[in-house]
Please model this.
Amino acid sequence: MTLSSTNFTFVSRLVRQEASIILEPGKEYLVEGRLLTLARKAGAQNVDEYLQQVQSRPDPIANHMIVDALTTNETSWFRDREPFQALTDTVLPNLVTNRANHRGLRIWSAACSSGQEPYSIAMLLEDAIPAGWRYEIMASDISSEMIKRAETGEFSQVEMNRGLPAQLLVRHFERHGASWRIAPSLRRSVTFRRLNLSTPIPSHQPFDVIFLRNVLIYFDVSTKRSVLHNVSQLLRPDGWLFLGAAETTIGIDERFERVPAGRASAYRLRTPAPLSAVGKG
Amino acid sequence: MRVILVDDSRAMRMILRRIVGQLGFEIMEAEDGQAALEAVTNSENVPDLALIDWNMPRMNGLELVCALRDDPRTRDMTLVMVTTEGEQSQIVRALAAGAHEYVIKPFTSDSMVEKLALLGLVPNEAENAQTGA
Model:
């Protein structure tokens, strides 16, 4: 059964308004697939019937659940590998030199989904940062459901199979019934927050590294610009930004420049031109 | 690249064959550890990779891992356990015996490709095509 155009329009407006995400016609299958579980839980025969119920009895909680269902994505451990390799081989040696007095690092995983990205970073830092250093990881997502899940630090067997080396599994996880639970020390190293990246972000201490991967692809250009503006306010002047492989700041926010980082690319804030150079030429 | 699929379940070998076949591997099969050991040691071209079940008649997967590690001709093979045995102590035993990776059934095609990619056995293009990246 195909979703009616009225219901598709309702969902695409809602998701655009609440999460700045563009759902173009042709994505009806995605809406149906993502909302089927909610429809069944609500006792509806199908997604169309469920969306009719929601529109006839406006309810902010139901709207929130729809946005959640459409903004959460499958993920894996050390997803795409290269950015994590770049973090170990290029970024950390640079920061360890630059922060030698402070001996601390702050990292933000800006669309953490069910938590694999921030916990992957934590596992990597456990091995890679020098003794006596501290690190803090903030992990955020627009979906409160995902934040709740990620905070538990529990993962199913199917999730554990997605890209996690067996050596790290036995070292950092414990069996907990049918699932696996991350070690308490790693769990404590990550702080979770619900954040909408396209709206002004509450002030935080700036970060040394920001992972903002596979987020910009969902937004139109003006929203991408707002998100990058918000992110730039929270990145240290000599910090590093990682985007997804299909994403870039080029043509959107010229304050960033793309730099090679191992086999990956990262983005850094351009050094401001010296005052004497301004206006020349 | 050559792979040997070692599992007493024909259905499981079929599933694995489909996954590694799409990655371009040449495929050998064996239905238990003993048959795998004979096939590998009698082969002119030792496989690069073995995907090994744990519970099999005659010789189990853990015994096969030990035998392949002990033989200079097969010592450099990459060994991946693919099993329903999911206790932490069993994973530790398999890694200590010489397995490089461990996949607990049930698994998805994507997760198997990701594991093989971790081991450097999948060209990037093939990985992206499989996982839809």
User: Anything to note?
Assistant: The longest helix of chain A spans residues 82-98.
